[in-house]
Every structure is written in C-alpha cells, then in structure tokens.
Amino acid sequence: MHIDSFQVLADPTRRHVVDALSRGERQVNDLVAEIGIHQSGVSRHLRILNEAGFVSVRADGQRRLYALKPDRFREIDDWLAKYRSLWEARLDRFGAALEARRQKPEQTKEKE
Amino acid sequence: MHIDSFQVLADPTRRHVVDALSRGERQVNDLVAEIGIHQSGVSRHLRILNEAGFVSVRADGQRRLYALKPDRFREIDDWLAKYRSLWEARLDRFGAALEARRQKPEQTKEKE
DNA sequence: GATGCATATACATGTTTATGCATATTGATT
DNA sequence: AATCAATATGCATAAACATGTATATGCATC
Questions:
Q1: What range(s) does the HTH arsR-type domain occupy (chains A, B) (predicted)?
Q2: Chain B residue numbers touching A71 (CB-CB < 8 A)
Q3: Fewer CB atoms < 10 Å away: N or C end of chain B?
Q4: What does the alpha-carbon distance between residue A56 and residue A28 come to, in Å, rounded to a whole number?
Q5: How far apart are CA A78 and CA B105, in angstroms?
Q6: Which residue of A has its CA nearest to B87?
C-alpha cells in the first residue's frame, strides 16, 4: 500500500516541509527559499510526501502547488491512541484496563 | 537533547518492540521470542529506545525489565496537534482518543 | 571460584537514503 | 519556434542504519 508513515517523517527536512505546508498551500520555490536545500532536493521530498499520501499537488500554470492531506496524519493519530492511555490513564477506563494488565513482579517504579 | 522521535520509530522492528511493551513490562528474552530477530538486535533496539526516552529499564536479578515511558509519546501527540485541525472539526482530543479506541480491536497492520 | 544464564557491545557487511550536480520535462511568453 | 521559468529526474557519493556472529559483562547458584 503506502510507504511507512514514520519512515517518511523520520527525515527532519521532510518535517520542515510539512511544517511549512501547515501554514497553507505552497509552491516548490517558496519551500526552497524557506528550507534552504537545493531545489532538486525539495522536489524529491515532495515526491516522497506525495507518494506517501501526506500532500496533494495541483498545477497552476508552470507552478505546482502542494498542500497537506489529512489521512496519513489521522493514521498516526490512530496509532498513537494505543499509547495515549500511558499518560491519560487516570482519565478513562481503557487506561485502567491496560494498567491492570501490566504484570508487575513488584511495584512498578520508574527511575533511571 | 534527545534523539529524534520519528527517527526512532521509523524502524518497524522498533515499533514492534514498542507494541509488545504496550501490553506490559517485558524482559529482553521475551521480546526476542515475540519479535523474531537475534537477541543482540533486540538489545540494541532497546538501547536506542531507552536513550531516546521511550522506555525505562529496571534490573530484576540478571534480567532487565523494560517498560514504556509516556513522555516521548506525549511529545508526538503535541506535534500532531498542529495538524489535527486538518481532519478534526469539533471533537476534542480526549473524545477523539475514545473514539479511536472504540473503533478497532486490532491495529498492528503497519509494517509492509 | 567455576559454571551457566541473561543481556550488552565490537566488528564486519549489505542496504538504504539524503544530497548536489547536471539534465530533462513542462508550461508560458514573445 | 526560441527562450525563459518552474519543477522533476538520473547519476554518483557519502553517511546512516539494521543485522548476525562472536565476544564480553553481570548476576546467580553451586
């Protein structure tokens, strides 16, 4: 299906692109200016983001306007839901259930 | 500060480890059995997860018990907040978490 | 203190990946 | 059609990374 979300977002430059796009649709050259790597690099990052479903493109003359698409972000949110009880445990009953399932040889104390 | 969250989670095996730990504290050998790579590999992944702050360790005799730590997950949640408006009309985060939990019993299909 | 079990690390290797440079493509303008 | 502007892609390179094998460390029990 799609490329792995986390692998796509693992690259800081790519996250920079995503961040820039969170402020609205942008054309490639604008991103080049904001991000500071070579144009070919930005294009390739956009290609990856597009193939991964993080962004959409539309042509406007010779320009290409990129914008964020929600689906993959929602997917990450779903993944995160499994772990949300780690810090929201006291608030919902799922967290309580998960807490109860923790096998503890004694009391779990967190330290380092 | 810490290593990059997304870079840490980019590796599918590492997410497998995290997933296993979401069901409770585990010792290294159990993870080796569940995950199916060599023990040295699991140890290295755990080292990375630990240094990144995703897990904690405590010694229990000769065993080392690893467990998830919430902070880095919360950090990802915060990052995601910037993009939640992409798909969220009205629901607040807690509501969304509950909703997501209710929808799917299985969520492990993430690594192809 | 010797032996055995659980976990960690050093080393070598094959693979992936981000990048710049050069070039190709596509669209606009004259 | 010629040229310029915006974007995409092939190639080469260097760095990062995951993995297995072998070995080391740490703990426990005899």
A1: 1-88
A2: 87
A3: N
A4: 13
A5: 12
A6: A70
Instruction: Tell me the C-alpha distance between B49 and B71, whole Å.
Output: 12
Contacts of B77 (CB under 8 A, 6+ apart): A80, A84, B93
Q: In this predicted model, what pLDDT tens digit does every residue of B54-94 receive, in sequence order? A: 999 999 999 999 999 999 999 999 999 999 998 886 555 54
Does the structure show a pLDDT above 50 at A104?
Answer: no
Place of tokens 């692109």: A17
- Residues of chain B in contact with residue A19, where contact means CB-CB under 8 angstroms, are 82
Q: What is the 3-state secondary structure (H, E, C) of B40-74?
A: HHHHHHHHHHHHCCCEEEEEECCEEEEEECCHHHH
Structural domain spans, chain B:
5-68, 70-112
Calculate mean pLDDT across residues B47-52: 97
Q: Burial of B32 by CB count in 10 Å (0-12 exposed, 13-18 middle, 19+ buried)?
A: middle
Residues in A whose CB is inside 8 Å of some CB of B read 1, 4, 6-7, 9-10, 12, 15, 18-19, 22, 68-71, 73-74, 76-84, 86-88, 91-92, 94, 98, 101-105, 108-112
CATH T-level topology, domain A5-68: Arc Repressor Mutant, subunit A (1.10.10)
